[in-house]
Amino acid sequence: MTHPYPLLDMSHHEYKPLPQRHIRLLRLQDDTQSEAKPALIDVLLDSAPPYETVSYVWGEQIKTCVFHFSSGRSVLITPTLNTTMSQLRPLCGTGHLWIDQLCIDQSSVSDRNQQVAMMGDIYSKSQGVLVWLGTPHLDFKNVSDLFQQGSFSEPRQQSSQTPSTSNGESSRIRLAFADYHDYRSLALDLLTLPWFDRAWVVQEAVLPAKVTFALGSFTFPIENLWRFISTFGIRQSTGYLVLNEIMRLRSKRFRPEKSNGKEAICFYHTLSILTPRCKTSIPHDIIFAFLGLQDSSKVQILPDYNMDWNKVPELVTKSIIKASNSLDLLGVLHRRGDDTTRWFDLPSWVPDWSRRLEAEPMVFPRSWMYFNSASSRIHKGTSAHGIQSTHLVATGKIVNEVMHKIAFTQDVGKYGASRRYWNVCSTLNLLHQYNQMALLWSKARRQPSEDRLLKTLLADGSFTLSQALRTQCSDGLSTSYITELLETYHLLERFSKKQWRHMPSTKTDVGRRAAQLCDHARVAWGRRLIVSSDWRLGLVHESACEGDVICIIHGSKVPLVLRRLQSGHYRLIGQCYFESAMRGEEVTWGEDDADEFILE
């Protein structure tokens, strides 16, 4: 089928342009173990025969191997694909494979544009995907143990007193404590395999109904892999984060009953999670590789490999805003400055998708939160005369401005600063915030209470990872709940870092509230407290300055902070929680009476 080096006299296969909605498939001979050459056929995607897709890492970009078709023609392929085909061909149960390197004319930009635009459908309509992880360079004994009786087993930690497993459970490993750490190391090694940090693999593993991994001669479904990996609590591994997002999206796609149609998952948030952590060989693919995950028919983002790739983030942002008539995407605007960027000099309203999030969004599409600062008015995408493509036109009104800002005492800009119980107190530091406000408030004006301060710092409960808590806080933090959180905060203040081993578990009321407080406090990462000109409190991005204006902008569920520029235009600073402005209280103008803001 293939040779390790190009043949000088080979007859090169010439790809022909495909009609709309057509794809190419590799048709295998019945005897998949033989060296019989497969045929490359073109079919209408919507009536294609059953086929499987292949997911692998390209590896070396230099094509040094020859692949022969039944027509007598040949193409050059990478050594990785050469190995992948020899290993996965016997696993194909449909007799047809779709493989990007063979089924797309890689030398034709127009063919790549056409086929990449259909990639979501190609994977969705397949019978399944075969994933080649490579040969096991890991601890082979441990790998072999995990495949007892051909089953990828789920290790469980146990003490030496735990009874041994019965014969009926011989295919499942029960680990002693020492073994547990060995297998945890193996799990980490698995997650460092190149497949787990490539951008294309996400949609390849999310969209097909069945995902089968191959590691050398071992095969296992993605569900078994996830059970094994999730045993060890290695959430900070890049491979874990990618696999976790794959499983989350698969659950939403194939088990929608679990979210009851309410889970706030959106395409741009998926981009925010994955693009900073994934690699591509072609710059455009850091966005194009995820287009198959976009399921809104209104969003029209067509891949174009001729486009200046520095324009891709702007294209994606404008397309999503236009299709949704919403500016909620601006919640993922702020990115970590210590990350390396793929793009420079982006407009202030365009997220740098290549960097990790610095601040959590205050609201998502289909969010539980009551926030409705623009009173349900949508973004209509008006276009000012002579506006540049790098500008975004928004409408609304200035309702206030930042008069004072109060910085957190430490680590506010550090993503994850309040992840631990002992950090949430040193980060929020209510006493410091309260004392700083005391210096601002005159004797004639009553200083805000601690309850009011905490409610602002937590943005009225806008962020939580708990679905049950989102429902509970959908109308904001109740007075009784804020009192509980405040009492918990003061309890946590009494503990030093060394004392946290004695902290009650999350199964107790105190431990549960402590975990909830830390969860809610994530919205304060990268933000700071501000006081407006009429003495209201707000929570804004840490880059906000005195004199920045607080605006109600049509299409945004929360107020936005803008900065006036000498040009008369504005720079977007970010989303804002602002007292007495989150339910549309400030909207007193007619929709056609709104002012226009040009964002640079």
TrEMBL record:
- Every copy of the Heterokaryon incompatibility domain together lies at 51-204
Q: Which domain of life is it from?
A: Eukaryota
User: Which Pfam family name is an example for this entry?
Assistant: HET
Coiled-coil annotated spans: none
Q: Which PANTHER family match?
A: ANKYRIN REPEAT DOMAIN-CONTAINING PROTEIN 39 HOMOLOG-RELATED, HETEROKARYON INCOMPATIBILITY DOMAIN-CONTAINING PROTEIN
Q: What is this protein called?
A: Heterokaryon incompatibility domain-containing protein
